[in-house]
Amino acid sequence: MGGRGRPVTSLFGRLADGTEIHSWSLENGGTRMKVLSYGGIVQSLEVPDRHGRYADVSLGFDRIEEYVASSPYFGALIGRYGNRIGNGRFTLDGETYQLSVDDGENSLHGGADGFDRRVWDVEPFTEGSDVGLRLSYTSADGEMGYPGTLEMKVTYTLTERGDWRIDYEATTDRATVVNLTSHVYWNLAGAGSGTIEDHELEIAASRYTPTDPGLIPTGELAEVAGTAFDFRRAKPIGRDLRTGHPDLLAAKGYDHNWVLDKGVTAEPEHVATLRDPASGRTLEIATNEPGLQFYSGNFLDGTLVGPGGHTYRQGDALCLETQHFPDSPNHPSFPSTVLRPGQTYRTTTIHSFNS
Ligand code: GLA
Predict the structure, then answer these.
(1) What is the 3-state secondary structure (H, E, C) of 253-302?
(2) Is 83 in the pocket of ligand 1 (CB under 6 A)?
(3) Annotation marks residue 321 as catalytic
(4) What does pTM read for this prediction?
(5) Is 319 in the pocket of ligand 1 (CB under 6 A)?
(6) Cβ atoms of residues 227 and 244 within 8 Å
(7) Is 169 noted as a catalytic residue in this protein?
(8) Mean pLDDT per 10-residue segment, the chain (355 residues)
(9) Could you give all domains of the chain from N- to C-terminal order, each with its CATH number?
């Protein structure tokens, strides 16, 4: 399939203060995506089914106003810290930092105005057989309570075979913590087409991090064997969703971090496969991160409306967020999220599509 060319931009809308938000269209290897300069948001991502029919497999909105007013992080870049930090507080080198608290007592996804709500600089590129976008944003020292000026570069690449690769890079001028991820809501049957409970999911993890009622990890690494959390062999997401496991009840479904068996790796390695048996569309994820947050769209409540007028209800999409573990700054036994001056934060996640 053709369509490879220089990314094309158009005006998507304006923020209340007049700032122009642009949409960038990219296509390569049979995958098409639209990315916004607001939040680095993947506004749409289209891939073919086994008969070559395209569908947008990521939830989004038509208008910038909807992203600003009510987006549950649809398609967005997440930072400085993917998932929660307990009580929005952590201590580093003897100093305690109070973060923006936006989820009960906790800080979620970088605080009230995280990277999902920032305007990024976007530079298109074509390089060999790749096409892509280089997104950059500088987060000021103290933004949302985090120490250090954080210089970020995130590269979205569509490869010749239609893979979407994300390379995250960050440096700081003061010791800080960083945990970047992407919050695409997947529905491989098409956004707005209904539940993802029939999608089959495989996660290469023997353990997960159980949480307290505020969804903060207790620190325990629990075995998945014999529980609803066992996705080591692909199974339909709905199969064990109503089994009454106390952790599922507390989170209204799956909203947990899986401890990937491979741990932190130098290169991205396979960690999960998601498949919609009806369309044949398959998503494979590889990362060098040690964790994967699988969220089964529990908070979607039928009040949000996507393109085409489809409403998004509970379980109409799922997120697979590659990351370090939630609340790591308060759990010295978890892989470290500390970044110091002179170091470069680098992680990569690759999404491969097949049908
Ligand atoms: C993550 C969190 C969830 C929820 C969603 C967005 O997956 O773990 O609890 O906040 O983001 O609604």
Answers:
(1) CCEEEEEECCCCCCCCEEEEEEECCCCCCEEEEEECCCEEEEECCCCCCC
(2) yes
(3) yes
(4) 0.97
(5) yes
(6) no
(7) no
(8) 77 98 97 98 98 98 97 98 98 98 98 98 97 98 98 98 98 98 98 97 98 96 98 98 96 98 98 98 98 98 94 98 98 98 98 97
(9) 5-354 (2.70.98.10)
